[in-house]
């Protein structure tokens, strides 16, 4: 018979000087667990030796430190030269918009995104543009040099000052940096680089953390601007330990539907600029092309108004985008279960809009299949799109169409009220620029300019919004 000490409960006991660490996110605990307490992954907890100084008190550690002479004397803040920290443009306007003007020398930026979204293409184009002014080193750990060269030929990223190396070893990467002495270093990807003197497997938590720390130290010592490509997990978060995002200066997320052409880049963290901007690109055969005015991509522009559609204005960062919401409501026959299918919209917000319309506006949507989608592959998650979703669903259920020159935006509450949203003036200005002449907005919106060329209707609840929207042109009602 087995000893109880050999069973799973005994595994929770740990000896002094031993820690258990999650291989997925780096979470640590003093007792073994079958499931990570941070990322909730099963079977990822493994034993590792604790640091020798972990048990020392802060006072003992402080007295044990050797005396070190500072590298430079402290100076008054007014005497510090800020010119060296000025951002330098990358040559890609949409990327510079997100970065706040460009890259600051010595910055370490992490670019993450789904596989195949275009991360390598983006950095290769940025590297080629930067190579027109200085030396750039592109280190690829996931492809061969010939494969990167083929992509560079296709997108026209061939420049003499763009150096290419296919390496997966950190020591070899550092040797290339010493030999080339670049002003910009691109590493694709940080999970593909390994080091012989670091515990763990290549791409593991320990390897990624220590390699990133080494590259950050290199960037600060040499004032070397560094761009790192990072993988993402199934839920879209950056793979590796959470400390990885704290080590770098800038965290960028590149997103888009792999079946579509639209790509968006956002700054999740930026020590030198804003984090509320978004850059738009179109991915084609010749690479990525910046879209300074992407609103037209998200509209279908039919010749005649169509029931179940509504145009809204969403704010992506500080940029207003005009986008179209399309819905289809189809009654279910018999005892068949109804469906709720969304594309580009938050399914939870669509479900909430359905419940509010049924309970507050008296629309019978319970026994209907409901399909809701956006145009052009754009993803709308802002609460300001609630009103457009509600009007589109109401139009689809009543088989009625809104006038083609109407936009609507506002947050819908569970009581059916329409709440105000931020940036009303910018939204109306963008809608007017795109040719829309009427708008349905929340009541009490005080940000409407007196010289606004649009006819603005303020509504207090979803019932008033439906009455106002479909009552503007009664001859547009069908059925």
List the helices and strands and how they pair.
Elements: H1 8-11, E1 18-22, E2 28-29, E3 45-49, H2 58-64, H3 93-99, E4 108-113, H4 119-130, E5 136-140, H5 145-155, E6 162-166, H6 170-180, E7 184-188, H7 205-222, E8 225-230, H8 243-247, E9 250-255, E10 262-270, E11 278-284, E12 287-290, E13 309-316, E14 319-331, E15 340-343, H9 347-360, E16 368-374, H10 386-398, E17 406-408, E18 411-412, E19 418-419, H11 424-433, E20 438-442, E21 455-459, H12 462-471
Helix pairs in contact: 9-10, 10-12
Can you describe this structure in just a few lines?
This protein is an alpha/beta fold and 479 residues long. It has helices spanning 8-11, 58-64, 93-99, 119-130, 145-155, 170-180, 205-222, 243-247, 347-360, 386-398, 424-433, 462-471, and strands at residues 18-22, 28-29, 45-49, 108-113, 136-140, 162-166, 184-188, 225-230, 250-255, 262-270, 278-284, 287-290, 309-316, 319-331, 340-343, 368-374, 406-408, 411-412, 418-419, 438-442, 455-459.
Walk me through this protein's architecture.
By secondary structure, the chain is α/β, with parallel strands linked by helices. It has 3 domains: about 15-50; about 85-290, Rossmann fold (3-Layer(aba) Sandwich); about 295-475, Ribosomal Protein S5, domain 2. The protein contains 12 helices and 21 strands. It has helices at about 10, 60-65, 95-100, 120-130, 145-155, 170-180, 205-220, 245, 345-360, 385-400, 425-435, 460-470, and strands spanning about 20, 30, 45-50, 110-115, 135-140, 160-165, 185-190, 225-230, 250-255, 260-270, 280-285, 285-290, 310-315, 320-330, 340-345, 370-375, 405-410, 410, 420, 440, 455-460. The strands form 5 sheets. Strands 6-5-7-8-4-9-10-11-12 form a 9-stranded mixed beta sheet, sandwiched between helices. Strands 13-14-16-15 form a 4-stranded mixed beta sheet. A 3-stranded antiparallel beta sheet has the order 2-1-3, with no helix packed on it. Helix 7 (about 205-220) links the parallel strand 7 and strand 8 (about 225-230). Helix 9 packs across helix 10 (about 385-400) and helix 10 crosses helix 12. The termini are far apart. The model is unreliable at about 5-15, about 50-60 and about 470-479 (pLDDT under 50).
């Amino acid at each position: 018979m087995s000893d109880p000490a050999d069973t799973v409960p005994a595994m929770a006991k740990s000896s002094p000087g031993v820690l258990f660490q999650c291989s997925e996110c780096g979470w640590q605990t003093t007792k073994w667990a079958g499931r990570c307490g941070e990322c909730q992954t099963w079977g990822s907890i493994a034993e590792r030796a604790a640091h020798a100084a972990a048990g020392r008190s802060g006072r003992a550690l402080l007295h044990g430190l050797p005396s070190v002479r500072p590298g430079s004397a402290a100076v008054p803040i007014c005497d510090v030269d800020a010119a060296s920290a000025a951002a330098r443009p990358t040559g890609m306007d949409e990327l510079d918009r997100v970065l706040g003007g460009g890259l600051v020398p010595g910055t370490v930026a992490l670019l993450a995104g789904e596989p195949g979204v275009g991360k390598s293409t983006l950095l290769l184009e940025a590297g080629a543009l930067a190579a027109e002014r200085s030396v750039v080193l592109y280190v690829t750990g996931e492809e061969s040099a010939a494969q990167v060269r083929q992509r560079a030929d296709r997108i026209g990223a061939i420049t003499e000052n763009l150096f290419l190396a296919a390496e997966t070893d950190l020591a070899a990467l550092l040797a290339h940096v010493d030999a080339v002495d670049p002003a910009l270093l691109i590493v694709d990807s940080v999970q593909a680089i390994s080091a012989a003197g670091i515990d763990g497997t290549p791409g593991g938590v320990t390897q990624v953390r220590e390699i990133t720390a080494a590259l950050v130290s290199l960037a600060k010592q040499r004032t070397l601007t560094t761009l790192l490509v990072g993988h993402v997990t199934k839920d879209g978060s950056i793979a590796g330990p959470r400390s990885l995002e704290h080590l770098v200066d800038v965290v960028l997320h590149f997103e888009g539907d792999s079946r579509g052409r639209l790509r968006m880049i956002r700054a999740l963290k930026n020590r030198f600029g804003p984090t509320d901007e978004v850059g738009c690109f179109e991915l084609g055969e010749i690479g990525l092309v910046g879209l300074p005015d992407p609103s037209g991509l998200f509209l279908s522009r039919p010749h005649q108004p169509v029931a179940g559609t509504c145009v809204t204005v969403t704010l992506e960062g500080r940029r207003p985008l005009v986008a179209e919401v399309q819905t289809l409501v189809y009654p279910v026959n018999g005892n068949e279960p109804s469906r709720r299918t969304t594309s580009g919209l938050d399914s939870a917000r669509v479900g909430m809009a359905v419940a509010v319309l049924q309970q507050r506006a008296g629309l019978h949507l319970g026994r209907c299949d409901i399909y809701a989608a956006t145009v052009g592959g754009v993803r709308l998650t802002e609460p300001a799109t609630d009103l457009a979703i509600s009007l589109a669903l109401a139009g689809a259920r009543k088989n009625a169409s809104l006038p083609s020159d109407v936009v609507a935006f506002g947050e819908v509450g569970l009581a059916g009220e329409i709440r105000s949203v931020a940036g009303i003036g910018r939204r109306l200005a963008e809608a007017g620029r795109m040719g829309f002449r009427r708008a349905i907005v929340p009541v009490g919106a005080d940000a409407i300019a007196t010289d606004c060329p649009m006819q603005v209707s303020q509504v207090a609840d979803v019932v008033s919004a439906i009455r106002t929207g479909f009552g503007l042109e009664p001859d547009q009602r069908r059925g």
